[in-house]
Amino acid sequence: MQNRPVIVAVGRTKFGEHYGKEPEKLIEEAWLTASNECNMERKDLEACYMSDCFLPITNKLGLEEGFLSELTELHVPMEVTRSFSAALLTACHAIQAGVYNTVLVGGIEKMTDRWDKIRDDLMLLEDPWSYYAGGTPESNHELMLRAYIKKHNIAGENLDKLNVALAQVSVKSHANATKNKYAQYQKAITIDQVLNARKTARKSLGLFDFAPISDGASALILTNEEASKKLCGNPVYVLSCASATDYLNYAAREDLSRFVAAEIAMKNATHIANTALSDIQVIEISDQSTVMELVSLEDLGFTEPGTAWKSIYESYLNNRNFYEVNGRQLFVNTNGGLKADGNPFGASGGAQIFEIYQQLKGQACERQVNLGNGSPKKGCVLEFEGFGTKAYVTLLGEKKD
Amino acid sequence: MSSEPIERRVSYLGDRLRASRCQSCNKEYFEVRDYCSNCGRKSFGKMDSIDLFYDKGKLELCTFVNEPTNKFAKLSSFVYGIVSFHDGKIRVPARLTDQLICDADKIDLSSLEGREVVPRFRRRYSVGKSDVVPTISLAFTLADEYYPHQQYNVVSPSKECEVPGVVGYGVYTSRFRIKEGGMERAIPFIDEDAVTAAVEAGKLALIHSGVDSKLVGKVYVGSESNPYAVKPIAAKVAQVLKLGEEDGDVQCVDAIETEFACKAASSMFKDACSLVNYPRSGVDYAMVIGTDNAQAAPRGCPGGELDTFVGYGGAAFIFGKNDVIAQVEGWYSCTSDTPDFWRRDGESFPMHGGRFTGDPAYFKHVRKSTSKLMQRFSLKASDLSYFVTHQPNPQFPVRMAKELGFKDEQYLPSLMINKFGNTYSGCSPTGLAAVLDIAKPEELILVSSYGSGAGSDAYLLRTTSQLVDKRKSQKVNVKFQAENPFVEYVDYTTYRRLKLGM
Most buried pick, B110, B165, B300, B342, via CB within 10 A? Predict the structure, then answer.
């Protein structure tokens, strides 16, 4: 097969609060890291695929392509999508179609510039009718947890375990982030901290159950197999990109306990890549909340519906940084996830890809997953737009024959 | 800044909870749809318009919000969740309203889940002072608490009367009260105002009367606390209650605002009667609503003396010639240019003439209209079963009634000032409703309103046998709200906060 899309380099900024930087400074930094890694010149770029979710709202910036053009002094085609995975999917299609050989995929978000109103904007974009009824960015996650508990009849001791399992998701993510120099929170936390934050909030989910509001940028260089040879000896292959869509209004969806779009996207992605779930060892999940990591493990098919919390709880009991499912080890959000790595919407997916790329190439340093027979061979990225309204699954791996 | 077109679209759908149902597969949608996605092209034009406005739902899931988004900040904390209708065919996001959450630990979410809820028409969220006031009915209250679910059944008229009169009425006051001295007063919840009370009162009046809302050809809304200086409450009422024939997204009804301090609504009773009686008006029924979040400056400020008496609520009366429960026999009106109470444009609170509001204002006008009307009909005080008058404070109506020769049993049943406070435009109509709630057929009721500025309208009503028949269609009557076990009492600080609203 010709024109296989491959990633030859990745780059990113630290996620967090970049009060002193313009949005374009962040994307510049990410792009420079990536291009530096593979030693490429900007003139080799034939197109750019950018993503941002909020820039026109938070920074009153339309036509983001324009400032990217200024930055790179390029006049090539540039497109903007809402999420990094969407940008990557579009870029892959272009590479596969043979339209371009080398493109830049980048994502950026500058959310802390509008601390004053970001939660309102976020909610209004995510689900307007929920917003009109008083919904907050956190409330639908809490409702999903309620729906999950009800659907699977989790009560008593099991409910306590589920709650600890959700805390463990956050504890594990924070532990992973201590080894990630780009992460927003490079600080370990304890189960008690997570549980106490819930008590303080008097809610089922607390401060440590939710991803933060962040600034940041990420970028990667995507080429076809042939073009990659000049830039990189062992590129990472994009085995498949798939997406699925669900209703904007969460209340109107058939099943409130999960994300059906994630399930569909994953099925399509594994089908296209002809990959079995058992071949995937490293996973990056869009954990805007700890509940999202829980249900996504099930939606993606790694655990049976209603059981993911058991695997997570086991990892807590055994003090492990991976989940064991059917005798296999699953490493989830080794970069700290959106929870601890940070969640600048348009750039988050880039950080997920960044992590899987490093893991597959054995470059993840302290975070490197070692399965006994070397680095993982295949990885999976799940990214959402909205509250499960769009789901993107990207499978990455070694050369596929 | 708000977007007027978006505001119009969201309100149009959200105020009435408009929905659609496919005639072939019965799938329902919380939106106005021309076709069913399930059935596709063949379902074009085969969708029924339904709405959830008079329905009850079930709270399926809920959570606690204590860090609301900016626009909900004034609510501080509330229960938010998902409500289903029609056995889960439609699910909508929902906020539980009418709850002051003082101790979040006492909220047991799982005990709320599964409970029946009633949609309530409320303010949606806070906006800037110059913006359109957003509303929505995705606010809900528990059906087994203060405000029960009631079905709206249209009843075809059985008897036409020669003399027009009241065919139904509704009074709405909120579940929150302040108790000071011997007096209780109604207070709006923070998402309530004169507009929401007008809609609630009108809704209750439709339920009570059994009148088909599309036959209501005119609606008058009298208020002195409209959140807008310019923009009628009546338009909102007409759209939400679907008054008059519905043609596309327009209601074929005449809707108008009236203002004359506390007699803004009661003054229109005779206009409504005259209109339905005019052979060529084409108007079968006319609705008159008096509604106020009665304004008063805080105590200690100029105008603050009113702060002891003001209440909140609305009263709606439907007039017509079919199935009349109280015929309007006649009226007498008087007016003089007396500045006893006023509010200049742009001022938040009214000013008050102190002692001047008594003898030269209230007593002079009520005395004149009442005695002139009695004279006209050659009636003595003892010929009447009930006397109702405006109740600006607990003393005035008693003194007036006694002076006119009425006995305790004739005027006390109408005295609601000690239960709801002075609800301004809704005040004497609420007193009339309280009397109609208990009156027997063939009784004479005299109601004299008073509006500062100043004037009074006195009406003579004669009850009919249908008064008793219709009573069973209204559970939420005046007594029900006055003596409701779910009433919640608040302190002065909370009262001022709630009264200022979102």
Answer: B165
A239, A400 Cβ separation under 8 angstroms: yes
Q: How far apart are CA A290 and CA A141, in angstroms?
A: 9
* CA A63 centroid distance within chain: 24
Predicted ipTM of the assembly? 0.94
pLDDT in tens, B299-351: 999 889 999 999 999 999 999 999 999 999 999 999 999 999 999 999 999 99
B250 and B109 both lie in a single domain: no
Strands (E), B236-356: 245-247, 250-252, 254-258, 285-293, 312-322, 326-335, 341-342, 351-352
Domain assignment of residue B113, given as a range: 4-17+52-142
Residue B252 annotated among the catalytic residues of the structure: no
CA distances from residue A241 to A204, A234, A307, A389, B435 in whole angstroms, order as listed: 34, 20, 27, 17, 72
Contact A146 B61 (CB under 8 A): yes
Q: Which whole-number Å values give the CA distances from A28 to A22, A140, A216, A231, A339, in the listed order?
A: 10, 35, 11, 20, 24
Q: Would you call B184 a catalytic residue per the annotation?
A: no
Residues B64, A202: C-beta atoms closer than 8 Å: yes
Q: Is residue B29 part of a domain?
A: no
Which structural domains are found in chain A, ordered by start? 5-116+213-228 (3.40.47.10)
Please tell me if residue B217 touches chain A, with a CB cutoff of 8 Å.
no
- Of the pLDDT bands very low, low, confident and very high (cuts 50, 70, 90), residue B181 is confident
Based on the fold, state whether residues B113 and B212 are members of the same structural domain. no
**What is d(CA B130, CA A275) in angstroms, rounded to the nearest whole number?**
58
B118 and B266 inside one domain: no
Helix axes A23-38, A64-72, angle to 10 degrees: 50
Joined together, the tokens standing for residue A315 give 């990892």
Residue B357 placed within a domain: yes
CB pairs under 8 A between A and B: 100
Omega within 30 of 0 (cis) for the link into A133: no
B64: contact with A, CB 8 A cutoff: yes
In this structure, are B235 and B364 located in the same domain? yes
Q: Tell me what pLDDT residue B411 has.
A: 98
Q: Rounded to an integer, what is the distance from CA B19 to the centroid of its chain? A: 25
CB atoms within 10 A of CB B370: 26
Q: Is residue B154 part of a domain?
A: no
In a domain, B316, yes or no: yes
Nearest residue in chain A measured CA to CA from B95: A133
Q: Check whether residue B454 and residue B417 sit in a common domain.
A: yes
Which residues, listed in sequence order, are joined to residue B50 by a DSSP beta bridge? B19
> What is the spatial distance between Cα B90 and Cα B124, in angstroms, rounded to a whole number?
20
Contacts of B62 in chain A (CB under 8 A): 143, 146
What DSSP string runs through B324-348? -SEEEEEEEEEE----SEE--TT-S
Over B7-42, what HEC string results?
HHHHHHHHCCCEEEEECCCCCEECCCCCCECCCEHH
Residue B105: closest C-alpha in chain A: A202
Q: Alpha-carbon distance B276 to B206, whole Å? A: 17
Sign of the CA dihedral with A3 first, then A6, A8, and A11 last: positive
- My answer on whether B456 and B396 are in the same domain is yes
Residues of chain B contacting A252 with CB distance shorter than 8 Å: 30, 90-92
Chain A stretch 84-143, residues whose beta carbon is closer than 8 A to a beta carbon of chain B: 116-117, 119-120, 123, 127, 129-139, 142-143
Quick one: B285 and B317 in the same domain? yes
Q: What is the pLDDT of residues B59-90, one digit of tens each?
A: 999 999 999 999 999 999 999 999 999 999 99
| Distance of residue B109 Cα from the nearest chain A Cα, in angstroms | 10
- Split into its structural domains, chain B has a count of 2
Task: Specify the 3-state DSSP secondary structure of B210.
Answer: coil
Rounded to an integer, the average pLDDT of A233-258 is 96
Using DSSP's 3-state secondary structure scheme, residue A114 falls into helix
